[in-house]
Amino acid sequence: MRPSAVKGTYDVLPDDQPRWHALLATTRRILGRAGVDEISTPVFEHSEVFEKSVGESADLVVQKEMYRFEDRGGRSLTLRPEFTAGVLRAFIEHGMHTWPAPVKLWSAGPAFRAENVQRGRFRQFHQVNCELVGGASALLDAEAIALLVDVLAGLGLRGVHVKVGSVGDPEDRQRYNAYLREALEPQAEALSEVSRERLRLNPLRVLDSKDAGDQALLAPLQRPLERLGGEARAHFDAVTAVLEAWGVPFEIDASIVRGLDYYRRTAFEVHHAGIGAQSALGGGGRYDGLIAQLGGPDVPGIGWAFGIERVFDALSGAGVAAAARERPLAYLVALDETAVAELAQLARALRSEHRIEHGYVARNPGKGLRDADRSGARLAVMRGSRERADGTFQVKDLRSGEQHTVPEDALAEHLRRSATGTTTDTDAALAG
Ligand code: HAM
Prior knowledge:
With 432 residues, this protein is an alpha+beta fold. The chain is built from 16 helices and 16 strands. Helix content is 38%, strand content 20%. Strands 1-5-6-11-10-9-7-8 form an eight-stranded mixed beta sheet. A five-stranded mixed beta sheet has the order 13-12-14-15-16. Helix 5 crosses helix 9.
């Protein structure tokens, strides 16, 4: 049997690498200008880091979506299903509450969830994650949302829908859960199985049901945003006022509920119509209380993450061109055995300026040119006994088909000119 990647995981092949690098470079530039610095945390943590943060009743735990294992010392470790918990663990461990606030941190890398695999849903997927820690002001909420919008726009993505809501303070949430239980328990039989389970563990999540029957039962009920306490309501109004003042396009979504349990007050998501049922590109919210829950000081914060695969899906659906892999400027073709070693050494020298590839065996000109063509090079540089005797190379432009005889000491300059696409007067003069 041929070996294959684990279901829900995939390889990023060479042709696909440039768009990853481009995405990360754009993200780094936009977030960097806003004072957000990069942090890398391990891909696995003590399991309790996630158990204390993503919550007992979050889908991740309930549906056993975390990759948890014991190491040889019998310690329980978990592959990160998201970044927030690990970044906040690092925040606590390095005493970042003593740094100038807010501490702004972004990360990118793989995350792991043992989910049902479908379009836009993988078991190893990748996120760009951003946390703004150490501020309770509505300005920070607006900044977080605006940064997410800015990064997606900077990547060339149009048609992003930003939905902003609030899950309220813990008391609001408790009250709302009680309200939902009271309204739905008498009709629990009519709910889907998933929603019945959610009603038991975390009623708020019933609102997220895709089931039409569930939605019909929910239709007459009030949404979390309509039942916020005074402080959470004032905070929400302040956040939307700043977004409006900044001209950040958004819509209010009164029933926004996030899949993770640590949110308080502001919760938001960005969606895109072009990526199928899993239309959420990203999401986040405020998580005041979470750092204390993890054993740190009581510092508030807000953050978001977007799924890199989903953003690529949206970008390619919208026809946004992906960056291409760098092609070699020249491929060096050895026409005899002596030239193989000569050209390997020459390639090393030329690589200080260009991407240069070469053959490892002697070829006749026909085969050598075919190798050069397959490498994607612009130029084929050929060398055999005749060129050695003359102190020259044959240089063929693989696009125009033009071929020149170039003296040894003029090759570097010839390549430089080809790379910058400048005039070929000297090349013409050199043409043999
Ligand atoms: P999340 O909504 O669970 O939030 O994930 C954020 C994004 O990651 C999703 O919108 C989606 O694009 C992508 N994603 C999640 N699961 C998968 C999957 N199985 N396959 C592909 N993409 C996926 C969080 O993770 C929070 N930690 C965000 C946050 C940061 N909140 C505060 N700070």
